[in-house]
Amino acid sequence: MTESSRRPLAVFDLDNTLADTAHRQRFLERRPRDWDAFFAAAPCDAPLAEGIALVHESARECEVVYLTGRPERCRRDTLDWLAAQGLPEGKVHMRGNADRRPARYTKLEILRRLARTREIRVLVDDDELVCEDARRAGFTVVRARWAAPSGELRAAQEREGRT
């Protein structure tokens, strides 16, 4: 067993936890929603200082893992953004391109799978429903409240399973 595999996991969401999506919310306010433009603008997200600091703090004792509702087709942009912010390397779990289940289902499924072989020290996420379900399932949760909430994004996460 390697040293990293013995360390507990700190699991971080991206959008509105580490990355400020405010500049791209406009793509969700139109009908139909412009998901391609919403995700194409992700590389321009500003980092959220509170979330970034928490990742670095957690990395002292934990292996960092990223858990996002972004579709797999956004992997390259996501990895580039994480590297540009100087964030610790870590496995990035993304939803399948055709997976439209609400984030609370997809994320909890991945958390449970990770917990089979590793201790999960904390989940940090902005989505209230993800946090509630994870807490009910026995996970320690920090709700990221440092980004401006978006009703459009929340509706999209729950009803459209897009992020």
Describe the structure in your own words.
It is a single chain. With 163 residues, the chain is an alpha/beta fold. Helices cover 41% and strands 18% of the residues. The chain contains 8 helices and 7 strands. The strands form 2 sheets. A 5-stranded parallel β-sheet has the order 5-4-1-6-7. A two-stranded antiparallel ribbon has the order 2-3. Helix 6 packs parallel to helix 7. The longest helix is centred in the last third of the chain and has 13 residues. The mean pLDDT is 91.
Q: What distinguishing features does this structure have?
A:
41% helix; 163 residues; 18% strand; 8 helices; 7 strands; five-stranded parallel β-sheet; two-stranded antiparallel ribbon; alpha/beta
Strand arrangement in the largest pleated sheet:
5-4-1-6-7
Indicate the multimeric state: single chain
What is the structural class? alpha/beta
Instruction: Give the CA-based shape.
Output: globular
What is the averaged pLDDT score? 91
Computed over alpha carbons, the radius of gyration is 15 Å
Number of strands: 7
Helix content: 40-55%
Order of helices and strands: HEEHHEHEHEHEHEH
Please provide a brief summary of the model:
The protein has 163 residues and is an alpha/beta fold. 41% of the residues lie in helices and 18% in strands. The chain contains eight helices and seven strands.
